[in-house]
Amino acid sequence: QVQLVESGGGLVQAGGSLRLSCAASGGTFSNYNMGWFRRAPGKEREFVGVIKRSGGSTLYADSVKGRFTISRDNAKNTVYLQMNSLKPEDTAVYYCAAVVNPRIVIPTTWSQYDYWGQGTQVTVSS
């Protein structure tokens, strides 16, 4: 069983930055593709980005491309989401998630993920 715990959320002004962390335990972190999703009030869960097991490849949603960066430290069992140039529309609960199945190379839909964190709130004020 894999446990994921996000941290680093908070309140920030538009144009500011935040760095989210997601610490994993209970499994072999380096075997998992790791994704970030978000859910804004009244909206569906939205894919933000994913990083492959080795950390050598990432994919982002168009809405965050060029502003957000995902990285991972397999030695620390942690994945990060660096968010720059934040906008009010980035306000959401952010979740990290893990994919166990190695055949799912670039998972971009929530149903492909096996484990989820509890989420961390990010609020961007205008």
Q: What's the overall geometry? A: globular
Q: Pairing-aware structural class of the strands and helices?
A: mainly beta
Our estimate of the beta-strand percent is over 45%
What is the ordering of alpha helices and beta strands? Answer: EEEEEEEEEEE
Output mean pLDDT. Answer: 95
Number of helices: 0
Q: How much is the radius of gyration in Å?
A: 13 Å
Tell me roughly what share of residues is in helical segments: under 10%
> Main β-sheet: number of strands, strand sense, barrel status?
7 strands, mixed
Poorly predicted runs are none
Which properties best describe this structure?
126 residues; 11 strands; 48% strand
Q: Care to describe what's here?
A:
With 126 residues, the protein is mainly beta. The protein is built from no helices and eleven strands. Strands 2, 4, 5, 6, 9, 10 and 11 form a seven-stranded mixed beta sheet that branches. The mean pLDDT is 95. The chain is globular.
In brief:
With 126 residues, the chain is an all-beta fold.
Write the layout of secondary structure elements.
Layout: E1 3-7, E2 10-13, E3 18-25, E4 33-39, E5 46-51, E6 58-60, E7 68-73, E8 78-83, E9 92-99, E10 115-116, E11 120-125
Parallel strand pairs: 2-11
Antiparallel strand pairs: 1-3, 3-8, 4-5, 4-9, 5-6, 7-8, 9-10, 9-11
